[in-house]
């Protein structure tokens, strides 16, 4: 039997290589994607998935709308299925972008059926399983085939599918994807090497009992995914919030056994830093991830991860994640959990169809 967490660790540290392969896979289908998309006259985009891939949908929808100026939103697949009247309106030509590592999650497959019955538009899949039911049902599939995993919790599959969502949004907006996203594998490689000791130290800190992950804009969905990784792998108390929402109630949970993880943007930086400082004054430890080091001073209980990506904000979204994967991995080991096989969790949720009578 493999050593506890061996698959997860390998999958986390292989992200730079897998991202490079994923970008090449995207470039190979980009001309066909362009032909497919421009036949559609798209007026609205709905991104959907479950669990991690719902959080990915949040990231993807915000990036897509920001870059393309086309209304885009994220919905959990179960909500698409159970409350279609709250999702669909008859007029605008809509694309459903379904995201799933396995391509076999029942609710996501059901969402495709509901969409086909309700809306007149195509389905695009983002998946790491190009041979899945979802990929076969879709009108077009973007795959990250090198990102498949042995572990239950998604790490490199999530980040590689995020890369595909970034590439989709950037490419359709006329950006040069190779220029914008090409540096990401090297950036991830450097961050994993440079910050592995910090992730280990914080992950193993027995005095931290509560983890809060905060993000704004594109980074809110990433904060949610970092929260879920911590929860799934290590069974720790872990929550995610829009950064400024944290003051509106959740901050009552802050004490000296809290780690506040702030995924800092550039455009809202001073407001986000103000929240972290306030929680620091209440005794919390802080881990701030920012593009540049001038974001925070180095007070004793403040740790920072500096991205130095040099790429646009939308493109660097995925770069926040790999070190946070390591944080969850080390915390899981410290909590005597096996991150490869988290307790109470299946790699894919297969149910009787929600549409069955
Ligand atoms: C989605 C998902 C995961 C979660 C768990 C069950 O799977 O909800 O996010 O961690 O493992 O499945 P998928 O549709 O992306 O394959």
Description:
With 357 residues, this protein is an alpha/beta fold. The protein has 13 helices and ten strands. Strand 1, helix 3 and strand 2 form a beta-alpha-beta unit. It is globular.
Quick summary:
This protein has 357 residues and is α/β, with parallel strands linked by helices. It contains 13 helices and ten strands. It starts with 5 loop residues before the first helix and ends in a 23-residue tail after the last helix.
Give a quick set of tags describing it.
357 residues; alpha/beta; five-stranded parallel β-sheet; 13 helices; 10 strands; binds 1-O-phosphono-beta-D-fructopyranose
Q: Helical percent range? A: 40-55%
Structural shape: globular
Any ligands, ions or cofactors bound here, and which? 1-O-phosphono-beta-D-fructopyranose
Q: Structural class given helices, strands, pairing?
A: alpha/beta
Mean pLDDT across residues: 95
Given as residue ranges, the uncertain stretches (5+ residues, pLDDT < 50) are none
Distance between the termini: 42 Å
């Amino acid at each position: 039997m493999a050593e506890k967490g061996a698959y997860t660790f390998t999958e986390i540290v292989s992200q730079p290589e897998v991202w490079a392969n994923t970008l090449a896979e995207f470039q190979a289908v980009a001309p066909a994607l362009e032909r497919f998309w421009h036949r559609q006259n798209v007026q609205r985009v709905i991104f959907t998935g479950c669990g991690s891939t719902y959080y990915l949908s949040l990231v993807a929808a915000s990036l897509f709308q920001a870059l393309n100026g086309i209304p885009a939103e994220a919905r959990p697949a179960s909500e698409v299925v159970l409350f279609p009247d709250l999702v669909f309106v008859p007029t605008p030509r809509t694309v459903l972008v379904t995201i799933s590592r396995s391509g076999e999650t029942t609710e996501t497959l059901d969402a495709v059926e509901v969409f086909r019955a309700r809306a007149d538009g195509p389905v695009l899949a983002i998946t790491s399983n190009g041979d899945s039911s979802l990929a076969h049902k879709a009108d077009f599939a973007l795959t990250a085939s090198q990102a498949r995993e042995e572990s239950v919790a998604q790490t490199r599959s999530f980040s590689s599918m995020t890369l595909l969502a970034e590439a989709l949004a950037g490419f359709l907006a006329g950006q040069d994807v190779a220029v914008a996203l090409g540096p990401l594998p090297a950036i991830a490689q450097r961050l994993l090497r440079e910050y592995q000791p910090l992730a280990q130290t914080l992950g193993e800190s027995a005095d931290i009992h509560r983890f809060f992950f905060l993000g704004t804009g594109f980074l809110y969905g990433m904060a949610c995914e970092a929260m879920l990784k911590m929860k799934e792998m290590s069974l720790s108390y872990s929550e995610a919030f829009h950064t400024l929402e944290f003051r509106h109630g959740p901050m009552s949970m802050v004490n000296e056994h809290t780690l506040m993880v702030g995924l800092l943007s550039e455009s809202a930086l001073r407001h986000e830093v103000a929240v972290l400082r306030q929680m620091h004054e209440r005794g919390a430890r802080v881990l701030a991830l920012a593009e540049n080091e001038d974001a925070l001073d180095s007070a004793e209980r403040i740790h920072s991860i500096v991205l130095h990506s040099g790429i646009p904000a939308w493109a660097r979204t995925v770069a926040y994640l790999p070190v946070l994967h390591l944080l969850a991995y080390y915390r899981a080991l410290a909590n005597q959990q096996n991150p490869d096989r988290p307790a109470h969790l299946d790699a894919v949720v297969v149910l009787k169809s929600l549409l069955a009578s």
